Amino acid sequence: MSGPGPIVNRRQLIAGTAAAVLAGGLPAAARAARATDNALLPKLTDARHWRIGYAETMPYGNYAGTLASIVKGLDALSWLSGAARMPYDAGQSDSEGLWRWLSSRDLGPRIRFVADGWYGGLDQAPAEPILRRLESGGDLDLMIVMGTIAGRKLAVDRHAVPTLVFSTTNAVAAGIVTAADLSGRDHVWAHVDPQRYHRQIRIFHETFGFRRLGIAYENSTAGRAIASIADIEAVAGQLGYELVARHVRAPAGPDDQERYYADLAAAWGDLAQRVDAMYITFGRWTLERFPALVRVFQERGIPTFSQLGPEEVAQGALMSVARSDFDGIGQFGASVIARLANGERLRDLRQIYFDTPTIAWNLAVADRMGYRPAMSALLAADNIYTSLGATP
Fold first, then answer.
1. What is the pTM for the complete model shown?
2. I need a surface site. Which of 226, 245, 314, 353 has the fewest CB within 10 A?
3. pLDDT tens per residue across span 352-379
4. What class is the 195-322+358-385 domain?
5. What is the CATH number of domain 23-194+325-348?
């Protein structure tokens, strides 16, 4: 089959769906250009250094990329020096090795990455040891947190340590912050892009014009927030397609992972018989297991869109939309840290940030489906994969 609709106007589509966001904030380029704003530079009369800790939901390329870019942003603002030597390669998911390097280097007198302040695996590990440490108020002045699960566990009122949360699906729906624009909390701030998943689904629908969209997620407060179900339902009402949902309970721990894979395979297999498009929300699978799971849609000619991004397109999803790099969010995050360190309150700092994303296609998946994307769609793409299991 050939593609039903070109996406030659996808940049106008992205811009249009983001208009409400940008009306309340500055575009990425404009915000990045404010690196010389005196409010972001260290005050020469303030000799305090900030001891920073880090926590993440799981190993993930977006987390490591965002962390590395925040460090580069702090370097550009003169809060530290030496970031150019960081052992970071685009696409890596390991943040622990990067943290070891940061904590073992003298990067200047104002920022210190605490050696034992890195925490990972909060999708399954308890947060209690971290919370006790933060409650003591002894050795950490700031926590950088990555992911919805880690954010929900650590952005709580048991402690007063400033906590910045990045890479969440929907920080408002998850209860991390009370509103998109400002956090409404003295010690918590989270990056918010309210239209991110609206843009994704609008582009997917613009391309395929589906009538029945499949989704699978854990039907809990956290599960619905992680999958951004409220956004998906809102767009369904606007565009007039039917949502067909299946619920899959997240793994309770490593011993429960195979049960999860079996339940997920059953849910996806059922959806593959009932829908004409599949929106793959964030899940607890590894990228190594993803190709076998997603094959059921390829074989039935059902287009798939990855909420996660190009990583899953490289492993077997048909297409996705994601940010092109982490420079913009890194500069934005660094500016928040700079303002906090200079005495501004987190509850007063803007949280909305949007940068123009990229479109990714997997032509090997399209071929297996018997689908031929329109040439105009490929010309509008930023990343094209030509084999299953390809790397960027």
1. 0.79
2. 245
3. 998 777 789 999 999 998 888 888 778 8
4. alpha beta
5. 3.40.50.2300
